[in-house]
Design a protein that fits this description.
Elements lengths: L1 H19 L8 E3 L3 E7 L6 E8 L7 E6 L4 E5 L9 E8 L5 E11 L6 E10 L8 E2 L5 E2 L2
Parallel strand pairs: 2-8
Antiparallel strand pairs: 1-3, 3-6, 4-7, 5-6, 7-8, 9-10
C-alpha cells in the first residue's frame, strides 16, 4: 500500500513538472520586470534603464514597435527576430532635466501570442537642480546642498 501511494505521488509530481516546462506554441514574450524604479535621481543624471525581453515560445518573436508615453521617454528596441529561448533588450532613456515625479510607460508591440501589446513602466523622482545658493531651513539657518 505504501509503495502504491509513493508511486502515485511520483507520477503526479512528474506530470506537474512536465506541464510547467512546456513552451508556448508560437512566439511568446516575457520581461525581466514590469517596472523600473529610478528612486531619487539627480537633475541631469543618467536616466537610462533596460528591460530584458525573452522569447519563451517556439517561434521567432518580432518586436515591431516600442513607444514611450511622452516625448521625455524614448525607448529603443531591436527589430531583429528573437529566436526561441533567446533574449533581447529594450533600452529606455528618460529626460532627467524635468524636475519632479516620474511615472511613464513604454508600450512594446510584438507578434507574441501570449501578450502582443506589453506595457512596462518607469518611475522615480528627479530632484531639483542644485543652484549653488544655500537653502534656508525653517529656523532661517542656511543649509548647504
Amino acid at each position: 500500500m505504501k509503495k502504491l501511494i509513493l508511486g502515485l505521488g511520483l507520477i503526479l509530481a512528474f506530470s506537474f513538472g512536465v506541464q510547467a516546462q512546456e513552451l508556448i506554441t508560437g512566439p511568446a514574450i516575457e520581461l525581466d520586470k514590469d517596472v523600473h524604479d529610478y528612486g531619487d535621481i539627480e537633475n541631469g543624471g543618467d536616466g537610462t534603464c533596460e528591460f530584458t525581453v525573452t522569447n519563451i515560445g517556439t517561434e521567432p518573436l518580432i518586436i515591431s514597435r516600442c513607444k514611450g508615453s511622452c516625448g521625455c521617454t524614448v525607448p529603443q528596441c531591436e527589430k531583429a527576430p528573437i529566436a526561441p529561448g533567446e533574449t533581447s533588450s529594450v533600452k529606455v532613456k528618460y529626460d532627467t532635466k524635468r524636475t519632479g515625479p516620474i511615472n511613464k510607460s513604454v508600450t512594446i508591440t510584438s507578434n507574441a501570442v501570449n501578450d502582443p501589446t506589453k506595457t512596462v513602466r518607469i518611475k522615480g523622482t528627479v530632484l531639483a537642480a542644485s543652484s549653488g545658493t544655500p537653502v534656508l531651513q525653517d529656523s532661517g539657518a542656511p543649509v548647504n546642498n
